[in-house]
Amino acid sequence: MNASSPHTELTSFLLLAKQHVIGLFKRHWQPYLHYHNLQHTQQVVENVIMLATHYELNPVDCAILETAAWFHDTGHLFGPTLGHEEAGVARFYEFLNDHPCDAIPAERIALCILSTKMPQQPSTFLGAIICDADTYHLGTAQFSVTDALLKREITERTGAVPAHWEVNTLDLLRTHRYHTSYCYLKQEAGKQRNYEQYLEKAQSMMLL
Fold first, then answer.
1. Is 95:109 a contact under the CB 8 Å cutoff?
2. How far is CA 146 from CA 35, 37, 186, in A?
3. Do 179 and 130 form a contact (C-beta atoms < 8 A)?
4. Which of 182, 64, 57, 153 is nearest to 114 (CA)?
5. Terminal Cα distance for the chain, rounded
6. Are 2 and 13 in contact (CB under 8 A)?
7. DSSP E strands: which ranges in 82-164?
8. What is the rounded (10 degree) CA torsion for 56, 61, 66, 71?
9. C-alpha dihedral sign at 8, 14, 17, 19
10. pLDDT in tens, 113-165
C-alpha cells in the first residue's frame, strides 16, 4: 500500500479487508455453515464498531478490531471447527502479504482473532471487545434461533446430532461471562432469561 495519511491508509485497508473476506465467503461457501457464515461475520463487525464507538477508541484500535472481526471465522471455510481461529490468522496474514499496511500492527489483529477461541480468555481490552462482540447474541431474544442454527451446522458437519445439546447450551449460558462493562450491563439480564428458558425446556424434556 502506497504512502498516504494514516487515516486514508486505514480506511483503504479496511475496505480491502472487507472486500477480501466477502469474496472468501462467496468463493469458498460451504452449505453446512448455517451459523458461521458471512451474516454472522457482518454482525460481529457491526458489534465491534458499536463497542469501539462506545469506548471512544482511537482509529488504529478501531481498525484492529474491525479487521479481526472480518477474519475471525474465515478458518471455517477451509477446515474443521477445531483450530479455525489459527486458520483465520493464517488467512489474515495471507491477505496482509498482498496488501501490506504500515499503519496496522498485525500481531495485535492476530491476537484479537485468537482471543475468540472458546472458552474465551482475552488478555487485552481489544480482545475483550471482540469476544463480547462474538457472543453478544447470548443475551438477545434471537439466541434460540442462533442456537438452532449452530446445532444444525454441527450436525451436518459431523453427520451426527450433537449429544446432550440442551445441557451443553445451559452450561455455556451458565459459565459464559461478558468481559466489558457495556455488554455486561446491556446483555447479562437477557442471557439470564435465555438460561432460565433453556433450563425450563431441559427440565420438561427430563434432561436434568
1. no
2. 7, 12, 19
3. no
4. 64
5. 57
6. no
7. none
8. -150
9. negative
10. 999 999 999 999 999 999 999 999 999 999 999 999 999 999 999 999 999 99
